């Protein structure tokens, strides 16, 4: 059965590539413009926001800093999400730099046997999120021209991601935890964290120069793959639109939205966002004014959480060879998208632009995209790690007091 499906998948892939090649020949100008636009997105937005984090994360793994942070975060991550504390490092890095950083870091943890397959699937499922610089600076300010919308979008996007993490803890309930997670059950211990960092550093016998060289090479290779996929999907969506093939899909989605009593005008951004998140979010903001802003924001939240097939392809290429399955990630994206859009509609009367709850987002100068947004992203990473560490300490103190009370009762 597996061989049969594999043969059919290869055949369908060949048919799809042939169709794409034919459409590119039929619409050369559209293909060229789409490729240039995709390349610009890669260089202006993705490269500065992802490349430094890829290099830094590789270096931190080599020096054992991830092991150090993982030991300290274990009291928080293990009870909530059933993943080792090193998953907290992945969550913080992904929060600051966005997709597909979590997949890259999860694959590295998997290679070093710090997590099991099931823990890796849980981790990448809920840490694949948009970065705040894109969500606030590009979507809320750049596309919607409404900075106060950022608070509602952020609350819905990251809040629903947290819920997905709680749901994913029930994924593979009988799976055996990783040796690293089992060994870290002693709780929050700075001494054990330093010991874990020291042992990890000793096990990596590369010099600083070798680590830096390999980190840069690995990051450049991955960025090349990411850029290529962005260009491919940009061209694919453009030639499908130019050929008129997307019209039928638009009509189908309009009918589905009508059945659900949702504005049919959201069909185009939802279809576009199904392929590429930037184009979909921009189209959601450009929907006619007759559609209420709440529904436009809900569509944008779904698109940001689904992340687009372009990001899916990037993550699938990164996870290839790690043993992590794509289906749990796909299911998590769908759940995340639905939850995020519902949370926007639920929060809208409480936190929408008319309520002036998020007036602080009026000053959006710190949320700049491209190279100028790198310092803000690094600062956000440090803030996220600090918050996670504080929560881990609080949970450890609560556990210690509870255990102490039980021991006192036994006496």
From TrEMBL:
Pfam family name, one: Gate
UniProt-recorded name of the protein: Sporulation integral membrane protein YlbJ
Membrane-spanning segments: 50-73, 123-143, 149-168, 216-237, 297-319, 326-348, 377-398
Source organism: Paenibacillus zeisoli
Keyword presence, Protein transport: no
InterPro entries membership: Gate_dom, Spore_IM_YlbJ
Record key words, sorted: Membrane, Transmembrane, Transmembrane helix
Gene name of the encoded protein: ylbJ
Presence of keyword NADP: no
Domain Nucleoside transporter/FeoB GTPase Gate: 46-127
């Amino acid at each position: 059965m597996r061989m049969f499906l594999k043969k059919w998948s290869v055949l369908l892939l060949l048919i799809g590539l042939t169709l794409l090649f034919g459409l590119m020949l039929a619409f050369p100008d559209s293909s060229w413009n789409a490729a240039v636009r995709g390349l610009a997105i890669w260089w202006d937005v993705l490269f500065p926001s992802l490349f430094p984090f890829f290099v830094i994360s590789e270096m931190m793994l080599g020096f054992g800093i991830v092991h150090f942070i993982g030991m300290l975060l274990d009291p928080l991550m293990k009870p909530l999400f059933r993943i080792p504390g090193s998953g907290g490092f992945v969550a913080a890095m992904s929060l600051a730099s966005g997709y597909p950083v979590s997949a890259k870091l999860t694959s590295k943890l998997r290679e070093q046997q710090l997590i099991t397959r099931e823990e890796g699937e849980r981790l990448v499922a809920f840490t694949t999120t948009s970065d705040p610089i894109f969500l606030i600076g590009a979507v809320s300010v750049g596309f919607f021209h409404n900075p106060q919308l950022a608070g509602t979008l952020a609350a819905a996007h990251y809040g629903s991601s947290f819920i997905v993490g709680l749901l994913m803890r029930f994924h593979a309930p009988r799976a055996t935890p990783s040796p690293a997670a089992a060994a870290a059950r002693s709780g929050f211990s700075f001494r054990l964290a330093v010991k874990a960092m020291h042992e990890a550093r000793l096990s990596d016998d590369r010099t600083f120069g070798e680590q830096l060289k390999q980190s840069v090479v690995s990051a450049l290779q991955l960025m090349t793959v990411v850029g290529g996929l962005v260009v491919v999907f940009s061209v694919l969506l453009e030639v499908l639109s130019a050929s008129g093939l997307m019209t039928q899909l638009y009509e189908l989605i309009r009918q589905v939205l009508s059945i659900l009593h949702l504005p049919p005008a959201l069909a185009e951004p939802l279809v576009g966002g199904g392929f590429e998140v930037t184009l979909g979010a921009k189209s959601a903001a450009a929907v006619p004014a007759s559609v209420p802003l709440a529904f436009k924001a809900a569509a944008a939240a779904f698109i940001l959480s689904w992340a687009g097939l372009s990001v899916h392809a990037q993550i699938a290429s990164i996870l290839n060879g790690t043993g992590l399955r794509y289906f749990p990630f796909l299911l998590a994206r769908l759940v995340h998208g639905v939850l995020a859009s519902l949370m926007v509609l639920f929060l809208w009367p409480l936190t929408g632009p008319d309520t002036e709850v998020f007036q602080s987002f009026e000053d959006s100068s710190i949320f700049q995209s491209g190279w100028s947004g790198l310092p803000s992203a690094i600062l956000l990473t440090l803030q996220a790690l600090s918050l996670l560490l504080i929560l881990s300490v609080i949970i450890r103190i609560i556990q210690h007091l509870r255990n102490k009370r039980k021991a006192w009762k036994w006496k």
